[in-house]
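Figure 2 data, in text form.
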Amino acid sequence: MKKTVKFLSLVIIMVLFSCSKEPAIDVTSESNILGQSVASKAAANKSTVLILDHNEDDIVGTSSTLHRNKNGITVNFKTKGLIPGNAYTLWFVVFGDAPGPPTGSTHAAGHIVGGSGKGNFSAHLSVGDIFDNMKVFNNPLTAEVHMALRTHGPAQPGMMPDQIQTIDGGCLLPEIGFPSGPFLHPDSDVVGYCSNIQVGMHPSVN
């Protein structure tokens, strides 16, 4: 669970004085108010949260930033402490406007992590996109959005690109008892190990 900000161009209108003695319009003041309104709206449609580990503790120095507009959502998920050479996928888990189970989930991004152990994932989900359960995404401005990071263990020859594009690519589940399901678990460098390991949770917007 990537960001274009559209800026409003302000046009200065020259006000001609007439014989009516009507007061001149303070265009500069109106422009400032309009600019503040646009900035406030942009801020309201952006949220940044710390990423949680498998113990549900904050991972200091990480961030999940979500941008919303009427056309969809864009995320940038920056994390660390990953295992070099492991394959990881990031997933949108979207909840509806009412309490309850998630509306649906879908693949966001994926790649193999380098020697630094840092991961930088970016993705976009558009209105009208179809979740894995065939439901349609239609509430970008209000939905609760969780960005779930999943490990697929060490990159395996012949298993790419499944390991960075599918939910169970390269996984040996459940044959050898590796964890599955929605809960968070530790990362691992064991071949075939897959699990959700981190999450960034963006609350719903009223």
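Caption note: Residues 2 and 123 are 4 Å apart (CA to CA).
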